[in-house]
Design brief:
Elements lengths: L11 H8 L2 H8 L6 H11 L18 E3 L2 E3 L18 H12 L3 E4 L6 H7 L4 E6 L4 H13 L4 E5 L9 H6 L23 H4 L9
Parallel strand pairs: 3-4, 4-5
Antiparallel strand pairs: 1-2
Amino acid sequence: MLTTVRINLDDFEPIARESLPKGVYDYFAGGAEDEISVNDNRAAYGRIRLRPRVLVDMAERDLSTEIFGTKVSMPVLLAPTGHQMMAHPDGELATARAAAAAGTIATFGIAAHYRIDEIAAVSSGPLWFQLYSYGNQDVCERMIRRAEDAGCKALVVTVDSFYLPRRWRNVRNSFRLPAGIECRNLVGVGLHTSCWPRRWAAGTPSTPR
């Protein structure tokens, strides 16, 4: 039975598993091949320890900090997560609103289903833009200008996707993006807006144009 009281992130995972189609849940929860990196990442995060301070005045506590000149409420930022609309129609719009309400930075990019200007229009908080290192400099420049026009404060450059990994969960589920979903940040820049849906399941090479 699913808990009705959600007090931490772990409480949401079984709800997501039950609510989402299996292929969609596996896409979000899974990783490449035997998912060794997924497990290593979780283990590394679990080894982080907070050092307590005692016999000090704790009447006022402040987690805020500054990152590249932007003040945030806590040292936690939202990384770019692809295809959020598969989980909810609001997708990145809801994420941007939540990040602004929490007082932190959200990052969106190529695998977003809303354009960066559409996301910026609903957010009162700072945004960063994630950019793949495409070999075509004209394409990169057009996307950078679009992010700049939307008010993004920084670029998050991804350099590891020239060969897409084989994700066994996707292969077993014959995963494909739902019909009608496209990556709208690619519209008008010279790349296919379907975000390579036929390649992501099998892990075949992706050649930027």
